[in-house]
# Entry
Amino acid sequence: MHLEWIKIAGGVCAYGDAGRPVKVPTLLWTRTPIACGHLPSDCPGLGPRYPVTEISHAEATQIASRLGGRLPRSAEWEWMAAGPSRRRWPWGASPWQPAFANLRDSLHDTVTPVDTHLAGVTPEGMLDVAGNVWEWTASTSMSEGAVIRGGSYASPTLYAQCTFLNAAPAELRSRGIGMRVVREL
# Structure
């Protein structure tokens, strides 16, 4: 399985619920969260299209570097998810439904392959931006944690909104947290 990169033009992100302006560079993004098939070693018990999970923030940072990139900052992630028009959901204005993202009410109860929810694609072509697994970012939070974005298979629909952010202890290894990689141009 090869990595597919999508170029997302930069701009000024109206970041967070307050809409604070943050300049975001043009970046190359992995189209999906990093899947087991993107890594040279297999993920135990999972197929190649399943997201890499149960990795700490430090491990995610190392994997991103090995893949020739880095973790996105929280504002960069939000810009990728919401676009210049500040979409409420990565796929647009339509309220969530199970075809869009793997969230708690979709009843999967675990992770799904990263290309399962094609109806939830962003206008730019990004998959699995909401649901399935939270995504580690390079942004830190209080108490030595890191910001995670996008929600997971166990999250309520609110967590899939583009401006919703959460944080996790940096050492946490969770079935519900994965990662996506960006590259500078």
About this structure: The CA atoms of residues 136 and 148 lie 5 Å apart. The chain has a mean pLDDT of 94.
